[in-house]
Specification:
The structure is a single chain. The protein is mainly alpha-helical. 54% of the residues lie in helices and 1% in strands. Strands 1-2 form a two-stranded parallel sheet. The protein has one domain.
């Protein structure tokens, strides 16, 4: 099974463009990278993890004082490609030996279970008692985030099926109908930009999640409640970047998804007024908005950042600029392993499903540690404390570009 874009040759360490910010899709401007921006992994300049000893590595165009061409950069580049190829072969063996249930079935069953819970959630909201009503809110909130975050994220990477045609159908369903966003722009911004240019300043550095005019407490604890409102508004603005047929399809899917939710609250859950139904929509759709925003910034911002023309190769770019959080039952179910405890694995092999990312996690972590490469891990509370303490530095001011000499 090919792991990236259906091209088996990319297992051999060739250049990869990468594989949306995660749904409900707030990230990205929809604009292509500026002309002259190097393709992902095209840089010959390397970076060094914290604690590594710098070495006198020169770029491909550098020369020694005597004028002789310096070959160290080229040799280092070939070494990095060999590392990525070796790791890819190890992962490919695991994928080939895995059943369809492991590759896709497990995650599809989670999404299917979420659909089956929808009637129970809407019916619980009919109750005048507090406990059943709150159970309905909790059920619909978890189901909504499972479909819009986990479902949309997997669909954007075509990780739900090995058919690209069905992958397109699922992307439209989960991203546009469930998440009220545009599939083309979501996929482009997340797959091509965020994954292709992870932690590259001005491209894949998660800067679209920054709102410097807000103070730390409003941003971290109050602003996430507005995600269900902001998401479709951002989508409408991005529709000007897609062709009219796609824009019309997106508008129809967005309206259908939002109206169905509203109609079910009125006619199944028994809400008496439009405003109470809309308020319940906002409540359920923002139930897990706080961890959603937090996860998107915790796993990249604060890690090494690079200029577009001075960034490491793929394996170092992802190991340096991506962080894993501990496993959490609620977030694993709603967001998926690839966004929580297997984010490093996901960025290295974005075409794999959540369950497969979890399965290859021991192989990837052991390999990176064996090769003295960074494997970033931290707890949710630790990252929250860090961002509250260093909010001005990390979220208001532009992050400094990592300038490191080389890799030992």
């Amino acid at each position: 099974m090919p792991l990236e874009d259906g091209d088996p040759a990319r297992w051999r360490g060739q250049q990869v463009n990468g594989e949306v910010s995660c749904t409900p899709w707030l990230g990205g401007t929809g604009e292509p990278p500026p002309r002259g921006t190097p393709a992902p992994d095209g840089s010959g300049t390397e970076a060094m993890a914290e604690g590594w000893e710098p070495g006198p590595v020169l770029g491909d165009g550098d020369v020694t004082p005597g004028g002789a061409p310096q070959q160290a950069g080229q040799e280092l580049g070939r070494h990095e490609e060999a590392l990525m190829a070796e790791l890819s072969e190890l992962v490919q063996k695991v994928v080939k030996s895995s059943s369809w249930w492991e590759r896709h079935g497990m995650d599809i069953s989670i999404l299917a279970c979420s659909f089956l819970l929808l009637p129970a959630g809407f019916l619980c909201l009919r109750s005048a008692q507090a406990i059943p009503f709150l159970a309905g809110v909790l059920t619909l909130g978890v189901v909504h985030h499972t479909l819009t975050v986990k479902g949309s994220h997997l669909a954007s990477h075509n990780a739900l099926t090995e058919s690209k045609s069905w992958g397109k159908v699922w992307a439209i369903f989960f991203i546009e109908l469930c998440s009220a966003f545009t599939a083309e722009q979501a996929t482009y911004n997340h797959v091509k930009i965020h994954h292709g240019y992870t932690n590259v300043i001005g491209l894949g550095d998660s800067s679209t999640w920054k709102l410097p005019f807000l103070n730390r407490y409003i941003y971290m604890f109050i602003a996430p409640l507005a995600v269900p409102i902001i998401t479709p508004l951002v989508a409408l603005d991005l529709l000007r970047n897609v062709e009219w047929k796609a824009a019309l399809r997106t508008l129809c899917c967005m309206f259908l998804g939002l109206y169905c939710h509203y109609w079910l609250l009125l006619h199944v859950s028994g809400f008496q007024s439009p405003w109470s139904a809309l308020l319940c929509m906002l409540l359920t759709r923002s139930l897990l908005a706080h961890p959603y925003i937090h996860v998107n910034i915790f796993q990249h911002i604060g890690l090494p950042m690079f200029a577009a023309d001075r960034k490491p190769k793929r394996i170092h770019l992802m190991s340096l600029g991506v962080l894993n959080l501990p496993r959490n039952a609620l977030l694993d179910w709603s967001f998926g392993h690839s966004l929580i405890s297997c984010h490093v694995e996901h960025h290295l092999f974005p075409g794999l499903s959540d369950n497969m990312c979890l399965k290859i996690k021991p192989i990837v972590s052991q390999y990176l540690k064996q090769k003295k490469l960074p494997y970033n891990e931290d707890t949710y509370i630790s990252r929250l404390r860090l961002f509250l303490q260093r909010y001005e530095e990390l979220m208001v001011h532009a992050p400094p570009i990592t300038e490191l000499v080389g890799i030992q």
